[in-house]
Amino acid sequence: MYGFKSRGDIKMLTVLDLERLTTLASANPKWSAEGRPEWLREQGGNITTLMATVIGTEGRSVYRCLIVAVLADKSKCNFTLDVSIEDFNRLPDVPLKEVVTLAHKYLLGVPPLDLDPAQKESWRFWKNFNDRAD
Prior knowledge:
The protein is α+β, with helices and mostly antiparallel strands. 43% of the residues lie in helices and 25% in strands. The chain has helices at residues 15-27, 37-43, 85-90, 96-109, 117-133, and strands at residues 10-13, 47-57, 62-71, 76-84. The chain has a four-stranded antiparallel β-sheet. A hairpin with a 4-residue loop joins strand 2 and strand 3 (62-71). The longest helix has 17 residues, at 117-133. The relative contact order is 0.16.
């Protein structure tokens, strides 16, 4: 049930939203993805951005969500959290401009493919040629 068959929207959360949803998940014995309560207590003040997206279901009224956190030092992490469908629907959508920014960051983060051997040789030739011209 995980993957692209789930809904594709991305939601914004505040630290208070995440604290509330983590408390609800931790209190429900049927939900196994409880977030990272200790980490949240320690890092809550350092969180600058929180987003959630659905990666599956954990019952008829519960989504398994992937939470992405960005900290003040620009480090990022993710973890799972079970969230009721009702609570998830109440969270605001990430604005389209932010989604486009995320897509660009993803695309720029894909590692480049090495040059083919012939391309490398050609590149070396022109580099050596230009070095001699200086």
